[in-house]
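The data are set out underneath:

___
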Amino acid sequence: MDQNIHFPLISSEQLNKVHTRGIDYKKLGTKILSGFHLYTKLNSKIPDITIMQDIDQKKLFSKLIEHYKPNPANIVVEEEYDENKGGMELKKWMIFLKKDLMICYSDEGVNLLYDNETPEPEALEWITLLQSLVKPPDGEMKEEGKMNILAQDMYSNMSLKSFTVPKPVVDIDLHYNEDFRLVHEYILKRLQTPDDTGLVLLHGLPGTGKTTYLRYLSFILNKKLIYVPPAIASNLSSLNFVTFMIDYPNSILIIEDAENILVDDGIRTFQVSSLLNVADGLLSDCLNLQVICTFNTDLRRIDKALLRKGRLIALYEFKKLSLDRTKILAKSLGIDELPESPSTLADIFNMSDPDFRFEKKNKIGFKS
């Protein structure tokens, strides 16, 4: 079976195992077009069911047929004549890929029905593959991602310099851990809200996808994204900054490696106070700015005032991918020797690169 970018993980051996080889639906004794009913009749057991919303069901149906070429007897389709379009419209469909593996579409969404004794990693593979065709809540990515860098000359005059962001390859459900999907959707909802303010704090190990995620946001958000260099970020309440930003309300500030303006070592710094004013103070009422900060320091060192409800939009720690997701991503990249421990995105995507770290060997003996 040829591999493709939509369903790269499932082998022909998996599909042929316990294949239905054609279903006699008449013998199942039902006139109801129900995937659950057909599954239970065929397998004499109740399946586990995963329901996924907002999937382009027509695209998914086409890709399943194109890639797996299932036995026509294993496909049930309900169509309706559409007078406006002058043709048949696909309404419901069900496909048995294996006797105990069924994908179907109904008004609830796309359903994956599978044996309740299926190993969790195998079930997660199917769920992840189907989720790869989920429509992002913000719509399609733009053709070009733009960001602006805030510059300041020797006379403290500020200006914006626009630059194009390299298009990232990002799949929220494949490249990040399972708990990030809901956080991501809430971040998008808030960042897309006009006249909103607040702070997004993203932290974690290097190589876990923080910067890639920022690039991704530049392709799906319509607000102006402004990258703020550390020297300017340390004084967000300055007269020059406030005067300049009056002309750019409803923007999103991005501050990378923001430890210097977030840390509380016993005395609140001027930098923290400036950020508080911009994120949720009188200054925020004027400018309607939202701020995204990334950092690597211990969360316990962050000023607690920054974490207050109402001021904080979201706080998320990017970690190594779980072992299951590490293996799924590695498989999708065609890596033969799968990692045996949780790994960062950087490690997985660069597994074929040579490692130039050398251990220092202690020599025994005397120097001549």
Q: What stands out?
A: The two ends are 64 Å apart (CA to CA). The longest strand covers residues 87-98. Confidence is low (pLDDT under 50) at residues 1-9, 135-139.
